[in-house]
Amino acid sequence: MPFHISLDGHADLAARIYRQLRDGILDGRLLAGERLPPTRELARELDVSRNTVAVAYERLTAEGFLESHVGRGTFVSPGFVARSKRAAPAGTGVRPIARWSSLPDPPGGDRLAPTPAPTPAFDFRVGAPDPALFPLRTWRRLVSQALRPSLLPPSGYADPAGLEALRVAIARHIGAARSVRAGGDDVLVTQGAQQALDLIGRVLIEPGTRVAVEDPGYPPAERLFTAHGARIVKVPVDAEGLDVTALVKGTRLIYTTPSHQFPLGTPMSLARRTALLAWAERNDAVIIEDDYDSEYRFSDRPLEPLQSLDHDGRVLYVGSFSKTLLPLLRLGFLVAPASLRPALRQAKQLMDWHGDLVTQSALASFIDEGLLARHVRKATREYSARRDRILAFARDELRDSLEVVPSSAGLHLCAPVSPHATVTVDSAVAEAARAGVAVESLSTYGGTRGGLVIGYGLVGSDRIDEGLARLGECVSAARMS
Questions:
Q1: 170 to 183, 290, 325, 331: CA distances (angstroms)
Q2: Residue 95 has what DSSP assignment?
Q3: Rounded to 5 degrees, what are φ and ψ at 228?
Q4: C-alpha span between 197 and 199 (Å, rounded)
Q5: Tens digit of pLDDT for each residue in 178-232?
Q6: Of 247, 236, 238, which Cα lies nearest the Cα of 286?
Q7: What sign does the CA torsion over 73, 74, 78, 83 have?
Q8: What predicted TM-score, i.e. pTM, was given to this entire model?
């Protein structure tokens, strides 16, 4: 039997033998019809009692993995197909509704890929913070504290809007940090900003509802609204933000990132914010304000959010802790006007009842103890240093090819191709990948102008300079004379 069983450090030997043989069958290392060693022989090889092996064989036989024949031996069931070769019926006559068929497969969807994609040596992709900056020891303490029996809800279920202590803490935090006008009752805790957008879609979008999104903009939001049956209208963005004059009459929802436009990075001007609110009131529209990463600011205090300027209850403010802490925690929130809160709570309950109360409790303590503010200050210093090095490199080495858009917040910089330069951006990105540098093309996010979007959340300070040098070489090679 070309199959090795290890029993080191395991007290329940029969269970261990059972699991390893079962997994070997499922993974195809033990093939259908293959003969297993007799119980006496395997027991001698593993230095265990024959009865221990017999118990494992009997369980596998009872579950259909093995067949035993008197006088012949024990075999892997001949009708058993290994996991790698097993598949559900093709279901050729069953199809999702059309709008789901048109959406791209999400990253990581190919579970049968032989090996995961390797991590690039120099990772300038956008959308993620540095996990090395996450205060893991502190977080572990707060999670352990949250797991005390006295803190668990007696019914096992909780308010769909989220843990009250966290809602109050979030309201206080965004009031101080972002001037958002909200109390605990105005906040609904979600599993990331994407779930907040999904809840909004569930209560406001019907098939054919016109939804405006920024161009260039955030593709996951556009795809989500499309999945709800929305008619997407792409609205151009200029130096002042979303072009309000380009909005189409009859638009029901407007999705925007005014504090740090994604991906360009420019803030929406006060005049443009005022114009957008006035347009929404005149046209009975609702604004979704996605404040996705403005916790990290490197210069002046941001302009007032749309939510604080809104006096008509037309703005839904969406935030996330994915950029501040870690995406895997799946923590976000939604601040909604009173008229929409009952429907949003109902939608949340129908979706998943409520989020992870242990994680929510840990975050509430993290905020209340001042640890979030401390973490943001520390991380901002680190990201600011990385950002400054990218800006300096772009100014000195890339000025003939790319021009960086001024930005004073977030975890990335946008660098469109200079007006008088001709750079084949796709070639630069591909060449960079071959050099171990991961960077994204601006065209990934729409718009008409080519360029690069350079993130600095994942690349460590000790790797930035070499990564930028390699990137510069790739951009220079992609210039056309």
A1: 9, 16, 14, 11
A2: -
A3: -85, 0
A4: 5
A5: 999 999 999 999 999 999 999 999 999 999 999 999 999 999 999 999 999 999 9
A6: 247
A7: negative
A8: 0.82
